[in-house]
Task: structure prediction
Amino acid sequence: MKPKPNKRPRNRRQKPTLTQAAMQAAMLLFALIFCVSGYNLLSVLVEYKQGSSTYEDLRDQYMTISTPSTTDGQNEQATEAFQYVVNFEELRQTNADVIGWIVGPDTVIDYPIMQGTNNDYYLNHLFTKKRNSSGSIFADYRHEHPFKCENTLVYGHRMNNGSMFASLSDYRYQEYYDEHPVLYILTDDVSYRVELFSGYVAKTTSNAFKYEFSSVTDYENYLKSISKRSNFKTDVSVTVYDRIVTLVTCTYEYDDARYVVHGKLVPIPEN
Result:
């Protein structure tokens, strides 16, 4: 009898063990998380870029920085402010909600100030009304006459790329205040030198955001209260005859914390 040929054993694919299956699932999950995180990061960077480009274009189109023509002591303050000239008439043809422009010399603060019908819209919409996480700098919608009432509230995001109102939180340091003690707010009819006199962290329920006052004494007590809280020292004095602006941005010391900076509005006479 012929011997039966030896049959080769069939190569059978081994089933993955439970541990191997778990590892494969984990690798797929990590890959998915990586892809999603990368997409989210890219989306954020694109939004940052779009926001920055929008405001750069606005500055190029509607703001001019003139060379001062006078340097005498009497007009020194006016000269400093009127280096910045904004064409509000043309600006309003794009968006009628614009009420002013805020400038911080040698800082990133250089934006139009908006005022909507609520305090939500401009949290995530640019001047062009395009949705964007950078949002806009905007005044509280409840002000009937911004910058002419006792206290005008102006809000802006603290963006991670340092834009919008991110630099406000630097006023917790005396050195930063010493280098940037004033801002400017430009409007159609009046330009203001904003002499900063207080900056600190506040809860959203704090009276830091008070804008209506029952009496002169009430306003006086408010000014004393906010002046005492400041992280920086200053020689700027404020009285009940002054109008102020309160600039507000996020900070992260605790839930619902805000960094607020108060400034005295000093009207600047035209040349």
User: Anything to note?
Assistant: The longest helix spans residues 18-62. The chain has a mean pLDDT of 86.
